[in-house]
Amino acid sequence: MRINRIKETAMQGVFFLTAITSIAAVVLICIFLFCNGIPAMAEIGFFDFVGGQKWSPTNVPASYGILYMIIGSIYVTAGAVLVGVPIGVLTAVFLARFCPQPIYKFLKPATELLAGIPSIVYGFFGLMVVVPFIREHFGGSGSSLMAASLVLGIMILPTIIGVSESSIRAVPESYYEGALALGATRERSVFKAVFPAAKSGVLAGIVLGIGRAIGETMAVVLIAGNQVQLPESLTDGVRTLTANIVLEMGYATGLHRQALIATAVVLFVFILLITVSMQAIKSRSENRG
Q1: Which residues contact 203 (CB under 8 A, 6 or more apart)?
Q2: Partners of 238 in the beta sheet?
Q3: CB within 10 Å: which end of the chain, N or C, has fewer?
């Protein structure tokens, strides 16, 4: 008995230590970002930085405005959500409730394989396939908001599919059987009884997908065009916050480097706001339920 208690106490200590390590990592990242980014915002001017329309750090005088890059990140993420969420959620419903077992054995590993493909490979695929297709059929250079949205929509699929399918499978079978017993069709039972019960998990999958889309870098650098401008159509090029950081961090110094770190602060705040907003929506829907 004493040995078992010692083991339990030791494992509790290990679990506590790992939890503290995770929290400490997040806190250290936050401290680094804010300590290096906020002074740059103060020197440039918060509204000049966030609301500025010109980014030219090498000119004299230099300009550090990231408004168009904020808009570009929002547009690209919204486009990815429009592409990836319907496909991902419906695929999860199919895998969880309608897919025959022989097809499931092939389709499930295929969707999981998407998560293991490096982002640079997605970007290369977009550069070689998607960009020429858009250039030929829609005009422009091909490297555009549309290309980035399509490729990111594909990239977020495995996250949305995996979390959504697990949530749907976690719903008790009695929900489905009860709906059938009341005379509902198979499809109506799934979408009116099972799916609403799993909506909190589905929403979590969507939030994770949005987080990956807004934080993606390499694929976007290759196919988005990287022009600091306000896109007027889907075929215009854009530069996102992440692309701006990776393109210029290698040679940036002084205030320029601090401004790039401040850009990461804005990106961090965006992801935090998305997470908090989705959590609030989730809590409100659960309270109503």
Answers
A1: 278, 281, 282, 285
A2: 225
A3: N
- State in Å, rounded, how far the first CA of the chain is from the last one: 45
Give the bridge partners for 63, in sequence order: 56
Walk along the chain (289 residues) and give the pLDDT tens digit of each residue.
677 788 888 888 888 899 899 899 989 988 988 888 889 898 888 888 998 888 988 887 888 999 999 999 999 999 999 999 999 999 999 999 998 888 999 989 988 888 889 999 999 999 999 999 999 998 888 899 999 999 999 999 999 999 999 999 998 888 888 988 888 888 889 888 899 888 888 888 888 898 889 888 889 999 998 888 888 888 999 999 999 999 988 888 888 999 999 999 999 888 888 878 777 766 766 665 5
Name the H helices within 45-144: 46-51, 67-93, 101-116, 119-125, 131-137
Q: Which two tokens stand for residue 157?
A: 């699929």
